[in-house]
Write a structure and sequence with these properties.
homodimer; 13 strands; globular; Rossmann fold; 2 domains; disordered N terminus; alpha/beta
Chain lengths: 387, 387
């Protein structure tokens, strides 16, 4: 393992992204093996002498390693509201690590990387990946950073699934799991939305049976549609109504109906879809939505979630949002109940919000306070131990 | 006006579809004029001597004129659970008329019809249509059938919008409006789902900027995606969960993950999308979803629904379904409240169902009883008057 930064310890205080090259083989759940892989990550704050104050941030479907601060492109991190000095995930107390995960498309090994066996991009041939594979890869990064135990593993949505998976795969390697707007498995409706998104990508003629990279093209229209479906379902009806209502671009609706105009909500979604299709890889979108669909926490435990969680050793904070209809509060309450049934320490909070699933990314005073208070107790405990 | 059946009165008892050719110009809201148009319709039951027992059935987005009975192709009508002898809409009491509406694609004048000005199919050049245009066209059919006043105008979803529009456009031409699973206007979320559906159609390379008919092709992939989005949102999460859960075709999920398999819900939706894309016209889908988006009952009445309904003279039955999240019970309650504020006679019933928006088409004992009882009072009143 090596870092591509000049000094091996530079990353400890760096905000710029770093790349960890993992030279060990990674055996994937699907049976394939990645002989080596790279993980791009960012890290914020300082690792203490005991190496006990590290927090792992797990991104969701379309996330990346740039979680906080402003990067070289001037872009603010996707969770900057929550990570930073004095924020809920306080970088004056914690050493916060956020990798881009394998199979994604922001620098870590994925479909757009070169397959060492062929010398070509993996593309559609990148092996199928599961949440467990992301955890295994993150475990390599953990070893690489000489961290023996995470103070906490934190994530929203698919990130929350990783946090739960960590608690079962490496029970002794994390003190706390913060599981936000997640579910132990997807509902049929969730799977169906993902299926429509994948079909939109695959039916774009530019997809070329997955070999679009060989033709120097991308299925932009399909990817834009996929994102529009996703984006719409991450929002609540109320939030959309408040933001856009029935406003039409270019003035009010013409009562003669001659010019129908475009509703602002349509124009907004089209813009979001097009923007996303410029930056995300189609094969990554297919791989990661399949990962979401196939995640099933209790599957290897006779379908019994309490039996699964009986293997966990960490403490849990579970967070849900009232208007989230993709990963509803009911899903979080099922997680909480299963933890209670397994006799584990769990705190649960449902946050009132009209922002839908996206609420987990957005500023919300009660949510910030809940996560901040929970983690301040974690850091106080670390300080006690250090004394 | 003429009928294409040999005898001009044959249609009164016919179950087979009839075509009414309306030779008068139809001025559309958009400013265009259809010099003449055809309406395919089916009729069930017998028109009484006073011509007072006629019911108009208004179909929704993808509906047609075949509402009840079994047609020549052996296909059961889309509302056969509710229309027939002894059923909620009792054809031993009422003369029930269901036209396919203009802009649709099952025989009435629409994008696949020949434009008399060009001798080519209208295709994408078919003028934009509004709910009011459907009502005007249905009014021509009413005159054609020598009906002076509908005993009731009944419809679900977009059909309910037509029933409300009738009550304002021709207050003296209907005794009752039965408004099922409808809304006075679409929410931003609803508009957004329709926009994604339209973009799926338009971004299919076979759409050819709307000129696909000239190329003897159809944007089947786009239309299938559009239908999958629609279909999924007409169902509830619970109903999908109960029907499919997380079942996977070809046996259970392989825990090695080697063969991911296809979830049954995905296979079901793909099948529904493909089936729909064989029979529906892409331009019709675009036109009718735009009609839905732009419907706004109160728009011409200062945005005040009670002011709008103050012009109505009929009585109303409003029906909603508990798990309908595209046209939620709240939408029906807004209609009911506006009618109450306008001082109109209205009955409202919310039906418990886990079938989502689709519930309005499906068997449900309480729903059948509610509509049946309401209409039995309507027919009793007709008999009283006749005595």
């Amino acid at each position: 393992m090596s870092l591509d930064s000049s000094s091996p310890d530079n990353f400890l205080n760096a905000c710029a992204s770093q790349t960890a090259v993992i030279d060990k083989p990674l055996d994937l759940v699907c049976g394939a093996t990645l002989p080596s892989h790279s993980l791009v990550f960012e890290a914020y704050g300082t690792l203490n002498k005991a190496h006990s104050n590290a927090i792992l941030i797990c991104h969701a479907l379309s996330g990346d390693h740039h979680a906080a601060g402003i990067n070289a492109d001037g872009k603010v991190g996707w969770w900057d509201h929550y990570i930073g000095p004095g924020k809920a995930i306080d970088t004056t107390k914690f050493f916060v690590v956020c990798p881009n995960n394998i199979g994604s498309c922001f620098g870590s090994t994925g479909p757009t990387s070169t397959d060492p066996e062929t010398g070509q991009a993996y593309g559609h041939n990148f092996p199928s990946i599961q949440v467990r594979d992301w955890v295994e890869s993150q475990k390599y990064l953990m070893d690489h950073l000489r961290i023996d135990c995470w103070a906490a593993v934190i994530g929203g949505s698919l990130g929350g699934m990783q946090a739960m998976c960590w608690s079962l795969a490496y029970p002794e390697k994390l003190q706390h799991a913060v599981v936000i707007a997640a579910a132990m498995k997807l509902s049929a409706q969730n799977i169906a939305f993902n299926e429509i998104a994948r079909r939109a990508i695959k039916s774009d003629v530019e997809f070329k049976n997955g070999h679009y990279l060989d033709y120097q093209t991308t299925p932009k229209q399909g990817l834009a549609l996929a994102r529009m479906i996703g984006h719409l379902t991450y929002l609540s009806d109320d939030a959309l109504g408040r933001k856009f209502g029935r406003l039409v671009n270019n003035g009010d609706l013409d009562t003669t109906g001659k010019t129908l105009g475009e509703f602002e909500v349509a124009s907004y979604l089209n813009y979001q879809g097009d923007k996303f299709s410029q930056k995300f890889d189609a094969s990554s979108y297919i791989l990661i939505t399949q990962m979401l669909d196939h995640f099933d926490l209790a599957k290897d435990y006779n379908g019994n979630a309490a039996e699964a969680f009986s293997h966990a050793q960490c403490q849990f904070l579970v967070v849900s949002f009232s208007s989230d209809w993709r990963f509803s509060p009911l899903c979080s309450e099922q997680i909480t109940d299963s933890l209670i049934n397994a006799g584990k320490a769990v705190s649960y909070i449902k946050i009132e919000s009209d922002q839908g699933h996206d609420a987990f990314l957005l500023p919300n005073a009660r949510y910030q306070k809940a996560v901040g208070l929970y983690l301040s107790r974690v850091s106080s405990k670390l300080e006690e131990i250090a004394l």
